[in-house]
Design a protein that fits this description.
Layout lengths: L9 E5 L2 E7 L5 E7 L5 E5 L2 E3 L2 E7 L6 E7 L2 E2 L4 E2 L14 E2 L11 E2 L2 E5 L10 E3 L22 E4 L1 H5 L13 H4 L2 H10 L3 E4 L3 E3 L3 H4 L11 E7 L11 H15 L3 E6 L16 H9 L2 E2 L2 E5 L14 H16 L5 E4 L17 H8 L7 E4 L2 E2 L2 E2 L9 E3 L1 H12 L4 H8 L3 H4 L9 E3 L9 H4 L35 H20 L3 E5 L31 H16 L17 E6 L8 H5 L5 E8 L4 E7 L5 E4 L9 E5 L12 E4 L3 E7 L2
Parallel strand pairs: 14-15, 14-27, 15-18, 18-21, 21-22, 22-25, 25-26, 26-27
Antiparallel strand pairs: 1-2, 2-6, 3-4, 3-7, 5-6, 7-13, 8-9, 10-13, 11-12, 16-17, 19-20, 23-24, 28-29, 29-30, 30-34, 31-33, 32-34
Helix pairs in contact: 9-10, 13-14
Length: 674
């Protein structure tokens, strides 16, 4: 008989069968359950226990075999125990999952009318099945692009939404990993000039029964249940393990084009929800190790995510699960980094957010994670932590989004807006962090698209089935005074200029810019700013109605950024000994700001003169006022000032030039070539 081992956890293929290892501190028995093509189940108990790991060798199991786990033990919710051997459970370390959930009482280990009364209905027929996978893959000469942060341009996109209606993608691969890998799709990314494609969640996730009852779907995927498995619905080649190879092929194609793949990962919670949620995996294996429970009420779940539960990052089992997953996606799937959803929850090992939490310390010392990008969404429902992560992390900078929108909208935020353009030194420099700590964005998947931000004063989420009560309610004034579609040329011009202003600020600012996929195309969701449940034309990219002028403008902005070192400082320009990059912040009359200038609500104009040793010098002229402003240009350091780009399509610069009028609500960049 082949020996078994307590590590690695999950299923490992060996000669003659598989080794299986499952962690549980509270189980009395663990069973490996295989299923044949007719759904007939065969159980084998894992007959060895080392510490808290049940393990064993199961003969005759080969890649493609469908399986699940059953875990026996006490059902005692008052003490945090929810074992129920009648429930088939997903292996937390499963690398592929086939099928979906058939919602009903069987998936719940409690009675619907009493969340603390046990239900013993067998769930196997209602559960998807894990799949034993063959990990072999011909990576060839694949190598990570390892784009430096200072040169990175992120592009946030949904696997399905980008390709579902793409004319260059065959119908049978639209909406899939294979669809993203076709030359026509990759060409869009490379022509646009982005360096790193950030995919919305691709970990196996659950389609909620509450949404299904409304005829909706969990489109975004922030409802994870399998942290090692590529989501099966995005596979064109099959769900019985084929999704793994298809994902790898996509990554290989991206790398061949010089593009990085970043995953948006959801480790803060799972799809099992609170005490009224289903029992699909972790609850039935070791509830208290994987989830944080309320100290004085072990029946209930401590929740800082707004989803019903939070992973117990103060426990070694949950931490090992997260770290094993991260290492797997880097070593086996070759991804280039991660964006951590509600990352602040992962630092709450004892309740409060901690900069030196076990999770952050583990990431910091891990040699596998050292070369990859780590990006935090630095907040959760219990707190806002922008600037609170370690120096080797970057962060979604919500302050950049808010101040940029406010500046171009109607707010008196010139001082803080200036900080955002410089890379937010007020947030990061005090901790000796760099501008690349700031991931700058003005729009993201959660909220209005850029076009809708400039077209709607109010959200229109009626299709979500919540009487338009979901989603953020406030919006800045970018819509030209007319909401929705219009034929008014003046309003359309205003909106277009505001879109260009927001994109310009994003791509001209120090830090790491992140474009929301589709913003460069003029993509609309019809005013829906919370399209998490809209797996349809509301969310899918409309390739027949591309705003070509906006696409060309965005491409030119990215090109300017990539060609101008002055726009990509690796350190703040005030850092000691860093004389390569310099910045002057000037009034429209080319004089330095005085204290009272920052307090003047009428002052909505600012000029940044950006220089880098041996490179072109740029003067960025921004005017958010409702009237044109005449700027006095400083003396050109080398060649005469020439027009580089402007959100005003009629802006002209005739050398030599000493003054320049920048029209209302617009920006202009002039360049002095080295």
């Amino acid at each position: 008989m082949t020996s078994s081992y307590p590590y690695p956890l999950g299923v490992s293929v060996v000669d003659g069968g598989v080794r299986v290892a499952v962690y549980s501190e509270t189980a009395t028995a663990v069973y490996f359950c295989s299923f044949d093509a007719d759904g007939a189940e065969t159980r084998q108990e894992l007959d060895t226990r080392t510490g808290y790991v049940f393990h064993g060798f199961v003969p005759g199991i080969t890649p493609g075999t469908h399986y699940g786990l059953r875990v026996d033990g006490a059902w005692d919710p008052a003490n945090g125990l929810r074992h129920d051997v009648a429930k088939l459970l997903l292996d937390p370390h499963a690398r592929a999952i086939d099928g979906g959930f058939e919602w009903g009482q069987a998936l719940f280990s409690h009675e619907f009318d009493d969340p603390f009364a046990r239900n013993d209905e067998d769930s196997a027929a209602s559960m998807p099945k894990c799949v034993v996978t063959d990990d072999s893959f011909d990576w060839g000469d694949d190598a990570p692009p390892q784009v430096p942060l200072a040169e990175t341009v992120l592009y946030e996109v949904h696997v399905k939404g980008f390709t579902k209606r793409h004319p260059g993608v065959a119908a049978d691969t639209q909406g899939t990993y294979a669809g993203l890998a076709v030359p026509a799709v990759i060409e869009h990314f490379t022509k646009l000039g982005v360096t790193s494609v950030e995919l919305l969640p691709v970990h196996q996730f659950v389609q909620d029964d509450t949404l299904a009852d409304k005829g909706l779907r969990n489109y975004w995927g922030y409802n994870s249940i399998g942290f090692f498995a590529p989501h099966n619905e995005y596979s064109s080649s099959g769900q019985a393990g084929q999704q793994v190879a298809e994902f790898k092929s996509m990554v290989k194609a991206f790398h061949a084009a010089g593009l990085e793949v970043i995953l948006d990962v959801v480790f803060n919670h799972t799809a099992e929800g609170n005490h009224q949620g289903p029992t699909l995996s972790f609850k039935g294996i070791d509830n208290a190790s994987y989830y944080r429970l309320v100290d004085d009420d072990r029946r209930s779940y401590f929740d800082t995510t707004g989803t019903g539960n939070s992973l117990n990052v103060g426990h070694p089992a949950a931490l090992r699960l997260i770290m094993d997953s991260l290492r797997y996606w880097v070593t086996e799937m070759h991804v280039d980094g991660f964006r951590f959803d509600l990352a602040t929850t992962l630092t709450r090992q004892d309740g409060d957010a901690e900069k030196h939490s076990a999770f952050l310390d583990l990431c910091h010392q891990d040699p596998v994670l050292a070369p990859v990008k780590l990006i935090a969404e630095p907040w959760d429902t219990a707190g806002y932590q922008v600037g609170g992560f370690p120096a080797d992390w970057s962060e979604w900078n919500g302050k950049f989004r808010d101040d940029t929108r406010e500046y171009w909208g109607s707010g008196d935020v010139l001082g803080t807006f200036t900080q955002r353009v410089l890379g937010s030194p007020d947030v990061y420099e005090g901790d000796r962090r760099a501008p690349v700590s700031s991931v700058n964005f003005v729009t993201a998947h959660d909220g209005f698209t850029l076009r809708d931000l400039t077209s709607y004063a109010e959200k229109h989420n009626e299709a979500n089935g919540e009487d338009n009560n979901d989603g953020e309610s406030n919006n800045a004034s970018f819509n030209g005074g007319v909401e929705g579609d219009t034929d008014d040329a003046g309003v359309l011009e205003w909106r277009g200029r505001q879109q260009r202003n927001l994109l310009g600020t994003l791509l001209l600012s120090a830090g790491v810019p992140m474009l929301l996929g589709g913003d460069e195309l003029g993509r609309t969701q019809g005013g829906n700013n919370n399209a998490y449940c809209q797996d349809n034309e509301i969310s899918w990219f409309d390739w027949e109605n591309v705003d070509q002028e906006l696409l060309d403008f965005t491409t030119a902005l990215v090109s300017l950024r990539k060609s101008s070192k002055a726009l990509r400082p690796e350190w703040f320009r005030t850092a000691p000994g860093d004389s390569a990059s310099t910045v002057e912040i000037l009034r429209a009359d080319a004089r330095p700001f005085e204290e009272h200038d920052w307090q003047d609500p009428e002052n909505r104009a600012v000029m940044f003169v950006l220089a880098h040793e041996g490179a072109d010098t740029l003067a960025v002229l921004m005017n958010a006022a409702h009237n044109g402003v005449e700027f006095t240009l400083p003396e050109a350091p080398s060649g005469e000032w020439e027009l580089a780009i402007s959100s005003d399509s009629e802006q002209q610069v005739a050398a030599p030039v000493s003054t320049l009028i920048v029209r209302d609500a617009s920006f202009t960049v002039v360049r002095s070539r080295a």
